[in-house]
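Lecture 7 notes: from sequence to structure.
We start with the chain below.
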Amino acid sequence: MTHIAINDVIYGRKYGMGLCLDIIKPPKPSGVGVIGLSSGGWRSFPEMGKPQPEAFLARGQTVFLVCHGARPRFYIPEIVQDISRAIRFVKTHAAEHAVDPKRLGLFGISSGGNISLLTAAQAGMGDPEAKDPIDREDSRVGAVATFYPPTDLQNFGKPGKTWLPYRPPDGPSEDAYFTKAYSPVTHFTEKMPPVLIIHGDADELVPVQQAHAAAERLKALGVEHRIEIRPDKPHGWPGMEGEYALCAEWFDKHLRG
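Predicted structure tokens for the same chain:
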């Protein structure tokens, strides 16, 4: 028996466009759901950044591959709103896909990792009075797994060095505003779910220091985390998909129900 794929499910709308996700179901669902971000360079479309789902499906995890609003039109906090909406959507429809809404993990690579950490850090409660039933759900997840995410854009590679991936066409012009808003470490709290970060120490695009910066902040907050440094690995490497099994294991460990 093979997996079942449902493509282009609309989980929200904004500015006249539909926000879509794909659902991939394993033959025997375990109840765990993995929300994987289709993201690269803070852009998102079906051909870019979709993580391979096989390692998650092998453990019975149902995968939701989410596309989001992209640069330069939408700045990162707006993208976070999209992912929060996707989480609420999945929780609303969890029973339809044999998923436990309390057993959801968030997975992202590079910009997807940045967005995953920001979303988990800023998760909110639902509004019980909302007209839209999706908005009544909360946007919390039980675990996060990422590859080489930018985590501290105010100290990018070394103390005081800032990096701004892009500025939206509207809004403030001060770099300091955006580097703070875009940095997960500035939003981490003790309520963060367990975090896994895998990072190559030869990464010339996102310095491995970013993984250590996240670990230092999570440790200070008492949040469970695990940092896996891969010697001589750049920003993405051949066979990296083999590491996804570690992420799937991380989700099973922390989303047992």
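Points to note: The longest helix spans residues 76-92. The chain is about 25% helix and 20% strand.
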